[in-house]
Amino acid sequence: MAYVENGGAAIHWHAVGEGEPLLLIMGLGCSSAMWFRLAPRLARHYRVILMDNRGVGQTQAHSLVHRVSSMASDVDAVLSAAGESSAHVLGLSMGGMIAQQFALDYPQRVRSLILAATNCGGSYAILAEHKVWRLLFTKVDMSPEEGLRSMAPYTYARRTSEELIEEDHLVRLANHPTRRGYQAQLYGLLGWTSYPPLAVLHCRALALHGKEAQLIPPQNGVLPARRTTPGQPPVLAPPNHQLLPAHPGP
Fold it and tell me: What is the value of pTM for the model shown?
């Protein structure tokens, strides 16, 4: 197991595969174990770097609030520990927010940016229905199993099989964050936004969003595309677009 010290935390990371570096950043309350389906496929063509954000998995951090800027700094530390000067960066949900901040703070480190099911934060984000948004805060008072069941209708497409959801839940339960770790991530998102400075972002970008997404509505996938500097527009892919091509170099 590899760790890198950064900002008072010990960030856990590891890498699989060979090729151009591709760093994956997972979402709220999820460890890097949740890349268990995608990472092996990507590792056929890339050197896939995975990390546990502050508050989850095997990363050791004790702050009451894990700010997005701090987690973006952790990405920089992991990339250095992995011996890479730059990488393609894929962020999912909260991981997409961290990826945006990383691209803004360390633009020379980003070869391309893939933003999956995420938003720009702050007043620029299009929020879920109140009952869905409220669940993010109230589920900390539920058991881990009950919390996952309560969120499932809003985090999976209607036709998703029960077998797939159960498989995901087993992985999440085996790597479930502490109450303090989850809340520290959640509170770190409050007040954060990337929207104003996105206009000066210079990198190839791909926005991905599912049509049925309820936790982060699909309109959020359009905002980074509209905000990015003219002449370097990201691509707004259809919901079933292949995430990365089957050959090196997205």
Answer: 0.90
